[in-house]
């Protein structure tokens, strides 16, 4: 969670800001649907449409467009103005909406309101979550919200223009974030000189090179470490684009010095279908009842409890070549060797495949240089001392579960037979990697129904053997274990009387 903004407090809402410099990447859709997912689980969520020119979040949430009489309600930035006056109900239970643009004194003219003033008012509200849908652009107003949020989330699509815009938005955020450091006021002359020397392709090295003193360089480094952001890739169309988020996060770290945690991706076809249904008014008779995709539910669970993500991807990530390879690519040091190896290979393949990643760097040749460095890192990973894997790890997991399950095979309520020892083999491997069933589903592209059946050994639901072998092979790929050994062990358990 971001530690650069105001400290978190149990009596104020948690604030997530969805930002990025490019329009059309689906920030409003992602914001509104994650809000609906959290609301369904009982959270009270306020969505703030921070656009000053073309608010649209009300169409996503089935809310009337706010119209204010500024003769009676003070405009934002004036005396006695408060964002609580802008809150309206939506078509969804536990979700409210506030729009900033109708509270401007003059249309299309930036008022005197600041993000700091609005954020201070937001902290006084009685909600569990406040989601801020930021407008595209890199100017001070949206970027200030992003820096001060508890959970700053970059939303990008896989297209090159969006990658470029996401990079520039993060550059703009780092440029302003230096002023949020606790020592910024004491060192303001040095820091102003540092910022004055930056150009539109600023990066970590340009900050450090321009800093005139050791104290100002320390402020720059600490700002990059304390500004913890997250990333969602929206509108993905194929498996390779799902991995793009890992590569983009790493590239931003290499170029700018801050390492976004990748939360996941959202499928393109699902998002287009849901958006078209809602905006076309085809769901007016069943408002609040539309289904949410598994991608959205997955992201909502992560955002509601960030601790597993923060533990899995510890920040700040060290840059030293002497540091543990897992930490250098953004993973926890306790991660298994095979998972580290797979993550490194995924990054290497992404850098080689995705030419658009060059847009993150000031020097386009940097992309292939990083790929070569990752190849060396991969060799170092192969020499790491590894925990038991492949056959030994699988047999050990199977023995542990056999000892726990020394009792007759139970029948389920429908009369079907379950083979718990077979399924516990998979669940044991999953727990060793601190992975949820939902995360395994996302990474293996296997439905939750079949994963649950595989783990419970439910013979009524398990697919035919030819498909089950394919599923087990995909699971072994995610776990980083020998597929033939896993398949043999699993079927051995199934064949036991």
Automatic annotation (TrEMBL):
<dbReference type="InterPro" id="IPR025669">
    <property type="entry name" value="AAA_dom"/>
</dbReference>
<dbReference type="Pfam" id="PF13614">
    <property type="entry name" value="AAA_31"/>
</dbReference>
<dbReference type="InterPro" id="IPR027417">
    <property type="entry name" value="P-loop_NTPase"/>
</dbReference>
<dbReference type="InterPro" id="IPR001387">
    <property type="entry name" value="Cro/C1-type_HTH"/>
</dbReference>
<dbReference type="GO" id="GO:0005524">
    <property type="term" value="F:ATP binding"/>
</dbReference>
<dbReference type="Pfam" id="PF13413">
    <property type="entry name" value="HTH_25"/>
</dbReference>
<dbReference type="GO" id="GO:0016887">
    <property type="term" value="F:ATP hydrolysis activity"/>
</dbReference>
<dbReference type="InterPro" id="IPR050625">
    <property type="entry name" value="ParA/MinD_ATPase"/>
</dbReference>
<feature type="domain" description="HTH cro/C1-type">
    <location>
        <begin position="426"/>
        <end position="486"/>
    </location>
</feature>
<dbReference type="InterPro" id="IPR010982">
    <property type="entry name" value="Lambda_DNA-bd_dom_sf"/>
</dbReference>
<feature type="compositionally biased region" description="Basic and acidic residues">
    <location>
        <begin position="390"/>
        <end position="410"/>
    </location>
</feature>
<dbReference type="GO" id="GO:0005829">
    <property type="term" value="C:cytosol"/>
</dbReference>
<protein>
    <submittedName>
        <fullName>AAA family ATPase</fullName>
    </submittedName>
</protein>
<keyword id="KW-0067">ATP-binding</keyword>
<feature type="region of interest" description="Disordered">
    <location>
        <begin position="389"/>
        <end position="419"/>
    </location>
</feature>
<dbReference type="GO" id="GO:0051782">
    <property type="term" value="P:negative regulation of cell division"/>
</dbReference>
<dbReference type="GO" id="GO:0009898">
    <property type="term" value="C:cytoplasmic side of plasma membrane"/>
</dbReference>
<keyword id="KW-0547">Nucleotide-binding</keyword>
<dbReference type="GO" id="GO:0003677">
    <property type="term" value="F:DNA binding"/>
</dbReference>
């Amino acid at each position: 969670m971001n530690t650069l903004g105001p400290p978190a407090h149990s009596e104020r809402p948690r604030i997530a800001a969805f930002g990025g410099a490019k329009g059309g990447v689906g920030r409003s859709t992602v914001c509104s649907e994650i809000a609906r997912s959290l609301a369904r689980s009982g959270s009270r969520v306020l969505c703030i449409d921070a656009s000053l020119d073309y608010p649209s979040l009300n169409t996503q949430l089935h809310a009337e467009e706010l119209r204010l009489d500024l003769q009676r309600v003070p405009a934002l930035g004036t005396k006695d103005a408060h964002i609580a006056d802008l809150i309206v109900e939506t078509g969804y239970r536990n979700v409210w909406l506030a729009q900033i643009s109708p509270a401007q004194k003059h249309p299309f003219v930036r008022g005197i309101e600041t993000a700091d003033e609005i954020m201070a008012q937001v902290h006084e509200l009685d909600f569990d979550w406040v989601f801020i849908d930021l407008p595209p652009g890199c100017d001070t107003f949206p970027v200030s919200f992003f820096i001060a949020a508890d959970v700053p989330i970059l939303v990008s699509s896989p297209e090159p223009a969006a990658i470029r815009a996401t990079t520039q938005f993060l550059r703009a955020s780092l440029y302003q974030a230096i002023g949020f450091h606790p020592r910024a006021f004491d060192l303001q002359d040095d820091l102003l000189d540092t910022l004055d020397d930056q150009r539109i392709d600023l990066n970590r090295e340009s900050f450090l090179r321009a800093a005139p003193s050791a104290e100002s360089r320390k402020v720059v480094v600490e700002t990059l470490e304390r500004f913890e952001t997250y990333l969602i890739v929206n509108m993905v169309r194929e498996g390779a684009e799902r991995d793009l988020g890992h590569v983009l996060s790493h590239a931003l770290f290499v170029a700018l010095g801050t390492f976004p945690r990748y939360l996941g991706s959202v499928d393109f076809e699902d998002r287009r279908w849901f958006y078209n249904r809602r905006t076309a008014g085809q769901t007016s008779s069943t408002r609040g009842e539309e289904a949410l995709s598994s991608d959205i539910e997955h992201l909502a669970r992560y955002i509601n409890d960030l601790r597993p993500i923060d533990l899995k991807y510890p920040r700040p990530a060290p840059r030293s070549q002497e540091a543990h390879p897992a930490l250098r690519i953004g993973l926890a040091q306790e991660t298994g060797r095979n998972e580290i190896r797979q993550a490194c290979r995924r990054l290497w393949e992404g850098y080689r495949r995705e030419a658009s990643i060059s847009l993150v760097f000031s020097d386009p040749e940097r992309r292939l240089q990083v790929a070569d460095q990752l190849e060396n890192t991969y060799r170092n990973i192969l020499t790491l001392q590894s925990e038991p894997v492949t056959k030994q790890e699988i047999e050990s997991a199977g023995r542990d579960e056999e000892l726990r399950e020394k009792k007759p095979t139970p029948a389920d309520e429908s009369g079907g037979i379950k083979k718990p020892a077979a399924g516990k083999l998979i669940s044991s491997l999953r727990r060793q990697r601190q992975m949820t069933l939902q995360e395994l589903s996302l990474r293996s592209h296997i439905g939750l129904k079949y994963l649950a059946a595989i783990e419970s050994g439910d013979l009524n639901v398990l697919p035919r053997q030819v498909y089950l072998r394919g599923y087990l092979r995909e699971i072994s790929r995610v776990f980083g274990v020998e597929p033939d050994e896993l398949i043999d062990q699993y079927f051995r358990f199934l064949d036991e009387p």
